[in-house]
Amino acid sequence: MHYTPKLAVLSLLTANAAAKTIRIDVGTNGKSFSPDNVTAAWGDTVEFYFSKSKHSVVAGDYNKACSPVGSGGFYSGTVQAKGDQPSVFQVNVTTTDPIFFYCSVGNHCKDGMVGVVNPSSDKTVDTFRSSAKSAGGNISPDAAFGGTLVKPSEGTAPKPSPGATGAAGHLTTSFGALSAAAAAAFLA
């Protein structure tokens, strides 16, 4: 196959166009992530929208519930929205492996405030939640890392519609999709 500059530009724009933004509400309905089970591809962004209550999100170790994952991962720090605007913590997805997460505030994890990105058939949010309920306590990392806390207006994921279910109801095409469509039309 012969590659041209136009094809190279189109390839880059198309790769960016495939990225999605997935919204997860934190604490909107008490000690819960909503949804608590989503599917994301490499390059997608997960946005955690924090409500007025104090919560956090930590990438957790599936084999040691309510404890941070051994390497990599993320931690938002304790976050609380100010006023009616939620605080947003963005995490870039760099794997298709399961990414378990939990709230490390108080006993929230032990109370079942957990979730997963990319569950597998044997590692599910339900099995992680069951392990969390018998955990000795929650562990918080020393400082926030692995993501970006942004202003509410910089979050890009729309609030899910009341009838939306599953991860597909919480996905939105990134600006790159519009760019790729425009580039494809231009390069044709």
UniProtKB/TrEMBL annotation:
N-terminal signal peptide: 1-19
Ranges for region Disordered: 139-168
InterPro entries: Cupredoxin (IPR008972), Ser-rich/MCO-related (IPR052953)
Lineage: superkingdom: Eukaryota
Record keywords, A-Z: Signal
Name used for this protein in its record: Extracellular serine-rich protein
Organism: Ophiocordyceps sinensis
Lineage: Eukaryota, Fungi, Dikarya, Ascomycota, Pezizomycotina
